[in-house]
């Protein structure tokens, strides 16, 4: 029996599109299903100024295939040299939607991130004043903190003090991976939201490490214990509008993943919606998929929900290609290790 579900066209509130040949190859994978995406600025060199963001947006729009309708929502990479006036001007002109905070060294291409949070206080204050959201990669980088604890420690040591120091600031905790992340969001006021990735609803740390190391399941923040995966599934399917989809689809070519020092990132743009439908169905929450994927994000960002729709139809398993080709080499698609029955049209 086929079932269908029609929802407003979804958006992706945390996406890596890269540049050059990889951008050209991955952009259609997102634009096929999603109307908008918050585009991460961690290029090399990073997207730091309004001028950088304008140039990157042009490069994205240049390779968007004819007939595809997609709006990149640009972000700026916060550095200790970021100029509050440049940020405010880029936001006022509609060019830039949010600013991204990476603690220096926390993840892929984050060397220019913030070490001394006092040095970015004027930017955060300006953002609070103009209502511009801060997207936060919430992990400490101290070598003595266990990698599985870095999100929880970040909340206590960095995020909570930062929010108290700048009370009006709208903050998105990006790609939360822990019960502590969920609890921090639910116990705080409405100016705090969180994105949850597709893959963190599916894998726990065993998927990375049991039976041989699986580089394509390695991402940052790293997947945690099963109890945390369950907390994320509960939050995503709860109907709480503070949780919304940010795939963190982060393509790296196979040689860069399958390496003695492999890059962090799961590439999920292509099959995300089929996976999410499967997960929400497993949780008896298909009626909440629209909230998570299409409505809660725009509400947090103060943008309209899409007036377009997509339809998911349940049928025989969908055959997604295991890899996509790019001019720089193949990129492996995230394997959810379960049949996906929901087709997207
Ligand atoms: C991201 C990337 O590859 O740019 N990697 C990842 O594992 N998620 C960076 C990030 O969002 O942390
Ligand atoms: Zn990311």
UniProtKB/TrEMBL annotation:
Pathway the protein takes part in: Pyrimidine metabolism; UMP biosynthesis via de novo pathway; (S)-dihydroorotate from bicarbonate: step 3/3
Reactions the enzyme catalyzes:
(S)-dihydroorotate + H2O = N-carbamoyl-L-aspartate + H(+)
Any idea which residues are catalytic in this one? 248
Q: Which family does it belong to?
A: Belongs to the metallo-dependent hydrolases superfamily. DHOase family. Class II DHOase subfamily.
Q: What does this protein do?
A: Catalyzes the reversible cyclization of carbamoyl aspartate to dihydroorotate.
PANTHER family for the chain: DIHYDROOROTASE
Stated name of the protein: Dihydroorotase
Query: What organism, scientifically named, is this protein from?
Result: Roseovarius atlanticus
For this protein's source organism, the top of the classification is: Bacteria, Pseudomonadati, Pseudomonadota, Alphaproteobacteria, Rhodobacterales
């Amino acid at each position: 029996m086929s079932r269908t579900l029609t929802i407003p066209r979804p958006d992706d509130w945390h996406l890596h599109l890269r540049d050059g040949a990889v951008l050209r190859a991955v952009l259609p994978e997102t634009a096929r299903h999603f109307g908008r995406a918050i585009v991460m600025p961690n290029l090399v060199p990073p997207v730091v100024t309004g001028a950088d963001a304008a140039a990157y947006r042009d490069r994205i729009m240049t390779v968007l295939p004819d007939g595809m309708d997609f709006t990149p929502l640009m972000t700026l990479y916060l550095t200790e040299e970021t100029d509050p006036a440049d940020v405010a001007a880029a936001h006022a002109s509609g060019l830039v939607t949010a600013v991204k905070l990476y603690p220096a060294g926390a993840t892929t291409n984050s060397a220019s991130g913030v070490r001394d949070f006092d040095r970015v206080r004027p930017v955060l204050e300006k953002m609070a004043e103009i209502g511009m959201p801060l997207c936060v990669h919430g992990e400490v980088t101290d070598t003595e903190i266990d990698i599985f604890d870095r999100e929880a420690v970040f909340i206590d040591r960095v995020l909570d003090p930062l929010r108290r120091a700048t009370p009006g600031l709208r903050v998105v905790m990006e790609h939360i991976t822990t019960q502590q992340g969920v609890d921090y969001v639910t116990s705080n006021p409405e100016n705090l939201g969180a994105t949850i990735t597709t893959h963190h609803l599916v894998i726990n740390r065993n998927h990375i490490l049991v039976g041989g190391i699986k580089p394509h399941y390695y991402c940052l923040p790293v997947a945690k214990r099963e109890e945390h995966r369950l907390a994320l599934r509960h939050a995503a399917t709860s109907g709480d509008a503070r949780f919304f989809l940010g795939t963190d689809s982060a393509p790296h070519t196979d040689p860069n993943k399958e390496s003695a020092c492999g890059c962090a990132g799961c590439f999920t743009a292509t099959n995300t919606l089929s996976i999410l439908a499967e997960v929400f169905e497993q949780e008896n929450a298909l009626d909440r998929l629209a909230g998570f994927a299409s409505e809660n994000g725009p509400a947090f960002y103060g943008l309209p929900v899409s007036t377009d729709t997509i339809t998911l139809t349940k049928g025989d398993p969908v055959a997604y290609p295991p890899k996509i080709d790019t001019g720089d080499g193949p990129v492996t698609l995230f394997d959810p290790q379960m049949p996906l029955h929901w087709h997207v049209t």
